[in-house]
Amino acid sequence: MFRSRAKEEKVPTDKVTADLSKHPRDPQSPKGRPTPKRSEAQTQRRRASSAPTDRKAATKRQREARRADLARQREALASGDERYLPARDKGPVRRFVRDFVDSRFCIAEYFLPLAVVILVLSVIQVQNIQSISLLLWMGVIILIVIDSIGLSIRLKKQLRERFPDTPKRGAVAYGLMRTLQMRRLRLPKPQVKRGERP
Fold first, then answer.
1. Higher confidence at residue 153 or residue 37?
2. CB-based contact 160:185 (threshold 8 Å)
3. Closest CA to 171 of 192, 190, 151
4. Rounded to the nearest 10 degrees, how much is the dihedral formed by the CA atoms of 151, 91, 178, 191?
5. Cβ neighbours around 114 below 10 Å, total
6. What are the b/e assignments for 64-76, b being 16+ CB within 10 Å?
7. Where are the beta strands (DSSP E) in the chain?
8. DSSP 8-state code for residue 107
């Protein structure tokens, strides 16, 4: 009287699923098999979701590929090889901007060493030295601004002449950011000497 009918009427699911795969079931007819438990349905869905069988090996391959790409990029930054440079540095416009900046003497590249010297001078508790450091600070900033304005005007003119139909968006800002780096530390490495016109 109180027995479960589900246990008595349980039909093996393997046979039913095999039969269903051969003949598609009419949506109006009864399905002819018990509804699977939620846990069983979820495990079947997980198995069917084509997850990679060897996830560790796949992540290891991805990591090695990423390392190889980064190594190639570092070599390209040192040698100037266009093929493996980051997207920010690729293209003939960016190469010209780098060569244009590297061929000139810029005050901005000495900003960091000068800032350190001025900071040390401003710490000394002598009134004259502190006022000199303040004047030096203002003078360096004014010189950098004037030099940067002159460089950007000349660079824009050269870019218009040499690359009339090529998009040049961000090229001048790229050049100005390069002037703030010391020549020895610039990446990609300078390919031209000072005074050598690109």
1. 153
2. no
3. 151
4. -90
5. 18
6. eeeeeeeeeeeeb
7. none
8. G
pLDDT of residue 52: 55
How many angstroms separate the CA atoms of 174 and 188, rounded? 12
Cis peptide before 164 (omega within 30 of 0): no
Residue 182 near residue 101, CB atoms below 8 Å: no
Record the tokens describing residue 78, joined without a space: 């040192």
Q: Which two tokens stand for residue 194?
A: 């000072």
Closest CA to 193 of 103, 124, 76: 103
- The C-alpha atoms of residue 183 and residue 198 are separated, in whole angstroms, by 16
Evaluate if pTM is beyond 0.85. no
- 22's tokens: 């051969």
Residue 177 has pLDDT above 90, yes or no: yes
Residue 29 confidence (pLDDT): 65
Q: What is the dihedral of CA 130, 132, 137, 139, to 10 degrees?
A: 160
